[in-house]
Write a structure and sequence with these properties.
It is a single chain. The protein has about 240 residues and is α+β, with helices and mostly antiparallel strands. It has seven helices and eleven strands. The chain has two domains: about 70 residues, Roll (Nuclear Transport Factor 2, Chain: A), CATH 3.10.450; about 140 residues, Glutaredoxin. The strands form three sheets. The chain has a five-stranded mixed sheet, with helices on both faces. A four-stranded antiparallel sheet has the order 1-2-3-4, with helices on both faces.
Length: about 240
Amino acid sequence: MSRTLLAAMLLAWLAAGSAYGSEAAIRKGVLARFPDMPVESITKTPFSGIYEVVLGGRILYTDDKASFFFIGNLLDMRGPVERDLTGERNAQLAAQVLRKSSAQAIKRVRGNGKRVIYTFEDPNCGYCRELQKELVKLPDVTIFTFLVPILSPDSVEKSKAVWCARDRAKAWDDLMSRGVAPTEGTRCDTPLDKNAELAQRFGVRGTPTVYLADGRMIGNYMTADKLEQALGSRATSSK
């Protein structure tokens, strides 16, 4: 092994060890100040001495000794176009969480299902029923709907009945499109509590709320043409 290669390997090892040491120290400092909040990740930002901490689903920033903390949007002004690094990271985290939580949602596939939309909906929400009319117009889309019954106790019972139905997708479509409620009962395990936690994490305060696969929240009730436009912008930005 050449001296040059050995030196390069040693420098890489020292750099990795230093980074690990800093992140471990930051984690210790964060836990000391926020003992009741889970530290999900600690990542060095492109800017010297600044670390990103994901704490209970929220992004904050600190120095390498966890002495100072600030919450806000970190902007990269180095290029010709300003980049909102915090906004990008929030969307990335949201996309990961939505994808991991998809088993808690009603899944409906239209056409090849290549495009993905996530919705948070209440079965007694009038705008959710209007959104249903627009969603059925979209081709080649997979729709994951998280049931978040926040409007009334009846919303909870209807959500349980939909989730406990043998065909959840059909039960939801029948309820929202034709007003036909499921009749198979409500005695099964449901993800309603987990969905409530998910909605709280994302700050969802009303239904419907619509997200794209890349983690962007694009609005509430939207017409089919606006949804197509949003899906198209995602396709363009991902190329």
